[in-house]
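Subject: Sanity check before I submit

Could someone independently write out the C-alpha cells for this chain? I want to compare against mine line by line before I put it in a report. The sequence has 379 residues.
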Amino acid sequence: MKRVPENLLVFSHLRWDFVFQRPQHLLTRFAREFNVYFLEEPICDVAEDGESYLSISKREDKLWVLVPHIQSGLAKKEGVNLQKLMLKSFLKDKSLSDFIFWYYTPMALEFSREYFPNLTIYDCMDELSAFKNAPVELTYLEKELLTRADAVFTGGHSLYEAKKHQHQNIHPFPSSIDKNHFAQARKKMEQPVDQIGITGKKLGFYGVIDERFDYKLIGEAATARPDWNFILIGPTVKINPDILPKNQNIHYLGGKSYNELPAYLAGWDLALIPFLLNESTRYISPTKTPEYLSAGIPVVSTPIRDVVKPYGKLNLVSIVSNSAEFVAAAEAELNKPKEEWLNRVDDFLSTKSWDQTWSDMMDIIRNAMGRKISVPLSA
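---
Independent answer below. Compare away.
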C-alpha cells in the first residue's frame, strides 16, 4: 500500500469561523494525521489600488486557515487568476506527491484544475447547485470533479442515492455527533445571560437562518401558543431579516460559539428543525438532529428526508408538516415521559460519533491510496 501523504489541502465555500459544523468536526480530527490547510473563498476587502494577498493563520498544532484577500470590484476572471497565483505561490517548493486535495466546493477547480495531487477527495456535504444564488457553472464543475476524485463522500443517505451512479467509489456519511459535548446539557448548567430571563416553556433552534428556514411556521406557532417561548440562535444570511416574525415570544439571540451551545440547550424543553421543503433542503442531513438528541431534548421536525429516515421512523423525532401539526406534536412531546424515549435515543446514538466517521473515512483514503497506480505527478 502506498504511503498516505502528509498534507491535506481543503478547498471550502464555508468560513472556518462561521458555524462549527461538518468540516470543522472532520478536519480537526484529520489534523491528527495530516497537516491540514483550509483554503477559504476570497474576501474582497483590499482597496482598488491595494495589493491582494493570502493570509495564513494557525488554529491548531497542524491546522492552518488560508484566506485570499483580493481587490474589490474585480471581474470574476481577474479574481480567479489571483487565486491561481496565490495557490501557485503556496505550493511552490512543495511536492504534489505529498498532498491530498479535499474539495467542499467544485468551484475551486476554476483555479486548481492544473494540479494533480496524490489523491483527490470530494466531500459533497450538500447539493450546492440548489442553494440560493448558486453559480450556474457549479453543475458542470461538479461533473469534472467527479471524474478527478479518487473517493467521494456524501453528507447523507438521500444525497448518496442521488449521486451513487456518478462515481465508483462513493460513500454516505450522514451527520454525526460529539456526544460528550452535547450530553453536558443533560446536567444542570448555568443559564446564559440572554436566556436566563426568559421564563416558561422554551422551544429552541440553532443554526443558520436562511432560505431553508420556515419562519412562517415559527410565526404561526408562536401566535397560536403565546405562552411558549421560541429561542432562535444563529446568524441570518441570504434573506431579509425584516421578513422574520416579530412576536414577543420569539427571541433572536444571534450567533453563538460551538462551546456555548450546551448551556443554551440545557434550558430548552423542546428542540426544533423547522426547515422548508425545497430544492435547497432536499438532500440535507441536519447535524443538529443527533446533537439535540444527545442533549436529551425531544425534537420536532418538518419532514426532511434524512430526518424522517431514520429518526422519524424510529419514533425518536416527531415529524410535522404544518403549524397546526407542530403545535399538537410539541404539546405531546412536552407532556410525555422521557425515560423510555431517552433509552432508545442513547441506544441509537451508541454507534455514532465524529471519531467513527473520521476513522471510516481514513480507511477509505488508505484503500484508495492502495489502489492508486504510480504515475508521474506534475505541478
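---
OP: Matches mine. For the report I'm noting this point. The domain at 179-349 is CATH 3.40.50.2000 (Rossmann fold).
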